[in-house]
């Protein structure tokens, strides 16, 4: 959805920025740490979630929150519930029974409700499904169960997710997404432009990104299937896995976002910034840095250089562009060039 104060983005006329946030808490920890271990690494994680939502509303910005469906559950009996929903037993055994009072790092229905009723409308999508089950190496029937159970958990709160991110960025089963009303997903994050050589190992590319602090490239949405758009991330501020980002590294991230905004304005593309709110709690100044990023975005919007969108907003704009491209009054070639045709660096 788009907030009433945010105009539609016009490709070829203006740059845009999208913020997408993976809301997962303990669901996103593959080694199933105890809550005390999670709290040690991410002190006051929920306070970071609250801070991010409060700051977005204060700045009149709509972001995309990609939520693990389990967070929206009121309560759970644990593995038996998840096995009954079709989740593999070995995966379900890691999930505790409980509710928001007894297992607050697993179940946060009150926060999902707060998102759904926030002062500035937020786009609430799905992160993987019900349990953050990774999609690679799984049969399609299992993935279908995971996806449908996650959608149901959100729909029980009146939320119909149309945006999506893959657990671990393991991109699979696009047709299944389209079948279930998903209109857009976040593709792999990369700091490399479209024309760059992608033959280098991922680990080496990550090292180059950390040391060199390159400018995050503007992206242009790509239609994967009819009505399903890939909106790749330009940069991940708080990547999952073991932390390799020092407080100084977070400052470098802020500088990268500044340059990314300039590049998106100059090339009339989309700067897509992804992050995990809990990751902001890993550093004393994480929330401050997030607020500084919002200030940079607000300034660009005030100057008329940048449109602030969420993922579903971008998908809606691209649907409109596609419809106009195939209209008899305009040839598709010229409009396609306008959408994908970048500009100069």
What order do the helices and strands come in, and which of them pair?
Elements: E1 15-23, H1 35-41, H2 45-58, E2 64-67, E3 75-76, H3 79-84, H4 89-92, E4 98-99, H5 109-116, E5 123-127, H6 140-155, E6 163-165, H7 174-179, E7 184-186, H8 202-212, E8 222-225, E9 228-230, E10 235-236, H9 247-267, E11 270-275, H10 277-280, H11 286-302, E12 306-309, H12 311-325, H13 332-340
Parallel strand pairs: 1-2, 1-11, 1-12, 2-5, 5-6, 6-7, 7-9, 10-11
Antiparallel strand pairs: 3-4, 8-9
Structure report:
- With 345 residues, this protein is an alpha/beta fold.
- The chain has a single domain (15-340), classed as TIM Barrel.
- It has helices at 35-41, 45-58, 79-84, 89-92, 109-116, 140-155, 174-179, 202-212, 247-267, 277-280, 286-302, 311-325, 332-340; strands at 15-23, 64-67, 75-76, 98-99, 123-127, 163-165, 184-186, 222-225, 228-230, 235-236, 270-275, 306-309.
- The strands form two sheets. Strands 1, 2, 5, 6, 7, 8, 9, 10, 11 and 12 form a ten-stranded mixed beta sheet that branches. The protein has a two-stranded antiparallel ribbon with strand order 3-4.
- Helix 2 (45-58) packs parallel to helix 11 and helix 12 runs antiparallel to helix 13 (332-340).
- The longest helix is centred in the last third of the chain and has 21 residues, at 247-267.
- The relative contact order is 0.18.
- Residues 1-5, 192-208 and 330-345 have low confidence and may be disordered.
Helical percent range? 40-55%
Q: What is the CATH third-level topology name? A: TIM Barrel
Principal-axes shape call:
globular
Classified by CATH, the class is Alpha Beta
| SSE ordering | EHHEEHHEHEHEHEHEEEHEHHEHH
Quaternary class: single chain
Structural class: alpha/beta
Weakly predicted, low-confidence segments: 1-5, 192-208, 330-345
Mean pLDDT: 84
Task: Please state roughly what percent of the residues sit in beta strands, choosing from under 5%, 5-15%, 15-25%, 25-35%, 35-45% or over 45%.
Answer: 5-15%
Major sheet: size, sense and barrel closure?
10 strands, mixed
């Amino acid at each position: 959805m788009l907030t009433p104060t945010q105009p539609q983005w016009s490709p070829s006329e203006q740059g845009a920025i999208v913020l997408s946030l993976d809301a997962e808490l303990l669901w996103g920890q593959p080694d199933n740490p105890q809550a005390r271990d999670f709290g040690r690494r991410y002190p006051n994680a929920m306070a970071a979630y609250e801070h991010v939502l409060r700051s977005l509303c204060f700045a009149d910005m709509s972001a995309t929150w990609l939520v693990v469906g389990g967070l929206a559950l009121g309560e759970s009996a644990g593995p038996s519930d998840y096995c009954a929903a079709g989740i593999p037993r070995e995966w379900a055994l890691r999930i505790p029974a409980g509710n928001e009072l007894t297992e607050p790092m697993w179940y946060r229905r009150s926060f999902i409700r707060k998102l759904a009723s926030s002062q500035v409308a937020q786009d609430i999508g799905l992160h993987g499904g019900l349990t953050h089950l990774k999609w690679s190496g799984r049969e399609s029937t299992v993935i279908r169960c995971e996806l449908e159970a996650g959608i149901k958990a959100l729909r029980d709160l009146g939320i119909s997710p149309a945006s999506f991110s893959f657990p671990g960025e393991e991109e699979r089963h696009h047709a299944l997404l389209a079948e279930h009303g998903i209109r857009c997903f976040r593709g792999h994050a990369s700091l490399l432009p479209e024309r760059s050589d992608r033959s280098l190992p991922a680990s080496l590319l990550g090292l180059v990104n950390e040391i060199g602090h390159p400018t995050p490239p503007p992206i242009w949405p790509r239609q994967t299937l009819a009505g399903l758009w890939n909106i790749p991330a330009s940069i991940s501020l708080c990547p999952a896995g073991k932390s390799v980002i020092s407080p100084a590294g977070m400052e470098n991230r802020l500088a990268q976002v500044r340059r990314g905004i300039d590049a998106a304005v100059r090339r009339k593309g989309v700067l897509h910034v992804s992050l995990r709110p809990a990751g902001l709690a890993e550093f004393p100044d994480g929330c401050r840095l997030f607020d500084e990023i919002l200030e940079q975005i607000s300034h660009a919007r005030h100057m008329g250089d940048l449109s602030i969108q969420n993922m579903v907003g971008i998908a809606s704009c691209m649907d409109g562009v596609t419809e106009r491209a195939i209209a008899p009054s305009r040839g598709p070639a010229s409009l396609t060039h306008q959408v994908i045709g970048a500009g100069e660096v």
